[in-house]
Design goal:
It comes from Micromonospora gifhornensis. By secondary structure, the protein is of the alpha+beta class. It has eleven helices and twelve strands. The protein has a four-stranded mixed beta sheet, sandwiched between helices. A four-stranded mixed beta sheet has the order 7-12-11-10, with helices on one face.
Length: 409
């Protein structure tokens, strides 16, 4: 992905922390240094050897804390947000150092700490850990011991997917995906993108709090979590947009089955392919039970990334990751996924690494449905309608989950 799309869409991750009141810069610098000492991934660089990247774990060293002051601007907060967005879109040279910590002074009692990292060394779960750890280290609090550092887990995973257990993993996914085809999405009409049009369409709508409460209740009644509920709604929307009943979409799972890596920072996520079958004659609860089982089996076999499956496992035109579904924070709550910090994640939700990426973002008592897609392939009107249909379907299944709702208007 970095090779083919990295220049267009920087593969960066960010953790954002607003500090209210005075900022002890010396204490923050110590916390940054201790954070890198604690997590080997944050001081791991990568070198190319033939067609592979090799990890080089550097010894602990002082890490420069960049300083930016926006307090003199007419709108200091807006200037800070623009700097955060620039940081996100500026590539991190993983061959030199994988992180770039910055302290932005917005005012005398408002500072923003931004840790920008290459995606090779972090993921959503890791970002939650880093958000927790930087706060604790700054305040001098104790943190749990780390079981395995990332390199130890990488050795374990290599054995898992190439040793005696690998046959069961491959057999499971072959069985799950036998006869599966890629989603046939409607292509954009032959109208060239205007010179001033951005390369990506981004649409977001809010699912109201009372609907979200109903979705959580529905999940509890069906003995599952929110993720299969939101994924079932996505299958239903895709079915109505494409006419396809057998739908295989990609998702990213945390891939932390080993308790030793619960507090380890690194790129663990595994892309899995989840296959759902929509039957218009069945109620939504039947679809949800089916998807719940698909997700549970996917979790049990997530150690094998979909990229390692034999070519042609899923047939059709396009890439297996062309359609991606995610529920942010579905595995571990992030301390920076609320309030001001969530606002500053907007830049991350305005870029896409896939042809079509549908993301559900928890925000206070509501959920935000976000669709990011390639403007050369999909029109803004089509994207807007898809998200609108999704939000309407969410309300419809809460009102009556025992029937499959009619197509939204």
């Amino acid at each position: 992905m970095d090779h083919y799309r990295g220049q267009q869409h920087s593969l960066n991750e960010q953790v954002v922390w607003h500090l209210r009141g005075d900022c002890d810069v010396a204490a923050l610098q110590r916390a940054v240094d201790l954070l890198h000492e604690r997590h080997e991934s944050l001081r791991t660089t990568f070198v190319a050897r033939k067609r592979q990247l090799v990890q080089v774990i550097n010894p602990p060293r002082p890490v420069e804390l960049l300083r930016v002051d926006t307090s003199g601007y007419a709108n200091p907060r807006q200037a800070a947000r623009e700097h955060i967005a620039t940081e996100l879109s500026t590539a991190v040279d993983f061959g030199v150092w994988p992180t770039r910590p910055t302290l932005i002074t917005v005012g005398p009692e408002h500072h923003i700490f931004v840790l920008t990292m290459h995606h090779y060394v972090s993921d959503d779960w890791s970002n939650a850990l880093l958000s927790r750890d930087i706060r604790a280290l700054y305040q001098g609090e104790e943190l749990p011991e780390i079981g395995w550092q990332y390199a130890t887990w990488a050795d374990w995973q290599r054995e898992r997917i190439s040793g005696s257990d690998s046959a069961a993993l491959f057999d499971h996914w072959r069985g799950q995906l036998d006869g599966a085809r890629l989603v046939r999405l409607p292509e954009r009409a032959d109208v060239p993108r205007g010179p001033d049009e951005p390369a990506w369409v981004s649409v977001e709508l809010t699912i109201d709090a009372h609907v979200v409460q109903g979705l959580h209740q529905l999940a509890r009644r069906q003995r599952t979590t929110l993720f299969p509920v939101m994924l079932s709604l996505f299958y239903l929307v895709l079915h109505r947009a494409t006419g396809q009943s057998d739908l295989t979409v990609a998702s990213l799972f945390a891939n932390r089955s080993r308790p030793e890596v619960r507090d380890t920072v690194g790129f663990f996520v595994s892309m899995v392919l989840l296959r759902g079958r929509v039957d218009d004659a069945e109620p939504f609860t039947d679809l949800l039970r089916q998807v719940r089982n698909v997700v549970m089996e996917g979790l049990r076999h997530q150690e094998l990334p979909a990229q390692l499956l034999p070519p042609g496992t899923v047939t059709g035109e396009g890439r297996t990751d062309d359609v991606m579904f995610q529920l942010l924070g579905s595995f571990v709550p992030r301390a920076d996924m609320s309030g001001d910090e969530l606002d500053d994640l907007e830049a991350q939700l305005e870029r896409s690494r896939f042809a079509l990426e549908f993301v559900v973002v928890p925000q206070d008592e509501t959920l935000t449905a976000v669709l990011m897609c390639d403007r050369d392939r999909f029109t803004p009107d089509w994207a807007q309608q898809l998200v609108k249909d999704y939000v309407q379907l969410a309300a419809a299944v809460v009102a009556d989950p025992h029937r499959l709702p009619d197509s939204p208007s």
